[in-house]
Amino acid sequence: MRSLDALRTRLIEVDDLNNAANLLRWDQTTYMPPGGAAARGRQLATLSRVAHELFTHAETGRLLDAAAKETASLPFESDDASLVRVARRAWEQSVRIPGDLVSELQVHTSESYQAWTVAKPKNDFETMRPMLQRTLDLSRRMADCFPGYAHIADPLIDFSDYGMKAAEVKTLFGQLRARLVPIVRAITARPLADDSCVRQQAPEAQQLAFGLEVIKRFGFDFERGRQDKTHHPFMTKFSLGDVRITTRVREDEITDALFSTLHECGHALYELGIDRSYEGTPLANGTSSGVHESQSRTWENIVGRSRGFWEHFYPLLQKHFPKALAQVSLDTFYRAVNRVERSLIRTDSDEVTYNLHVMLRFDLELDLLEGRVAVKDLARVWRERFEADFGIPVPDDTRGVLQDVHWYAGPIGGAFQGYTIGNILSAQFYASALKANPGIPADIQRGEFGVLHGWLRENIYRPGSKFTASELIPRVTGSALSIEPYLDYLWGKYQPLYALREEERTAGVS
Ligand code: ZN
């Protein structure tokens, strides 16, 4: 297996360069002083270019061909055959993109990100407009490296959710929207849950301590990970032995940092659970943004916002915040952390309305790429569509088109669909976990997560990228991606919370 070994060595070198870049990015958003910004953008561009050159070099292609011959007789699922298959797919994507375009996009999006951090709080879309136009032009150029696509977004979606087509996502989202809207309408016709108990002063140190205590119980390994503070929480990985999460703390809200910690912990548990023998290879990554997001949402929402979870952890939270919570009942608190309302900000929105925020952005991405919406009209179109979907006016661009970092820090296209696919999948995977282990809800009530974590690790985390999402989902759940478990989950949770009537579930659905 000489070519396979040489291929693996080369892939690990590429991974080393990419992880050096990841470390620079992590530093940029946690500890770097502002003066480092310009040089950091250049350093990242250099590393991206060198990694891209090494990976797309003709020698990599030769090794891939030779290793494919060496592994031809191995079963599809074998580690070696999978490594060659997954590496080839990534290689075929990368060789089509000229190195210049890679570094151009890197330099531009670094600048655009810095400008956005200033423009967003100032409600200044005008400054971002020409930058966004250039991002759109570069995104189109990226897509055009893959001629023959059915939709211009398809190649861009392939980078995050390989194999999903814009047309499929559109159909899936259309079906989900039709079923979500009656539930949103029914809930929002009820009195709004009072969430004043979580909107109380809470010292940063206690918030962080409580969050760390919970993720330790989830199984986050502090020998192979850590948490730091940032503005926009994220998870990153430098190796399977070093997976980092970040959070932000608002001292006027008890649970804000907590839920972001649980979310990023879910991403981290996925990466930490990958087979250690895949270290440094393309197999040692989560398989798609949708599957990744399914894990953050499992730990944040299905577990972390469940009644059983809080039956166990609420007394502990009360101990951390005795002044604020001693007089607040578990019921009141549980309702507060599951309050549903039509609101302006995606990342603050509840489980029920969240996907409508994602659909708005996904549709706009397609419209921008197709040229149906011009960048100069984007802020206005955002406001119009948001008001049509949510029934509330958008007061400014800070809380409108400028709110999410994605279009200002990376290509337009493929950035948002993974969130909703993740929500859908979280419930589908969890339903399978429950079928195999009906005792999981009782475990959660006792603050025990070993069985759930173990099931997710064996079925979803351990294979890393060995299977694409569309290969993995039927293996794990016995069926293709389906919205039904997710709708059942939402109804099962919110029907009793808001005393919804059965006929409201499908009112107006044909
Ligand atoms: Zn996430």
Beta strands, count: 3
> Approximately how much beta-strand content do the residues carry?
under 5%
Mean pLDDT metric: 96
Overall SS class: mainly alpha
Q: What kind of sheet is the major sheet? A: 3 strands, mixed
The ordered string of helix (H) and strand (E) elements is HHHHHHHHHEEEHHHHHHHHHHHHH
Report strand order across the widest sheet. 1-3-2
* Proportion in helices: 55-70%
Radius of gyration: 23 Å
Form type: globular
Ranges with pLDDT <50 over ≥5 residues? none
Bound molecules: zinc ion
Tally the helices: 22
| Separation, N- and C-terminal Cα atoms | 58 Å
Description:
The chain has helices at 2-30, 37-56, 58-70, 79-95, 99-119, 125-144, 154-160, 166-188, 204-218, 256-272, 289-303, 307-320, 322-325, 330-336, 354-370, 378-390, 406-409, 417-436, 440-445, 450-461, 469-477, 484-498; strands at 225-229, 235-239, 242-247. The chain is globular and about 65 Å long. By secondary structure, it is mainly alpha-helical. Strands 1-3-2 form a three-stranded mixed beta sheet, with helices on both faces. Residues 263, 267, 293, 296 line the site of zinc ion (ZN).
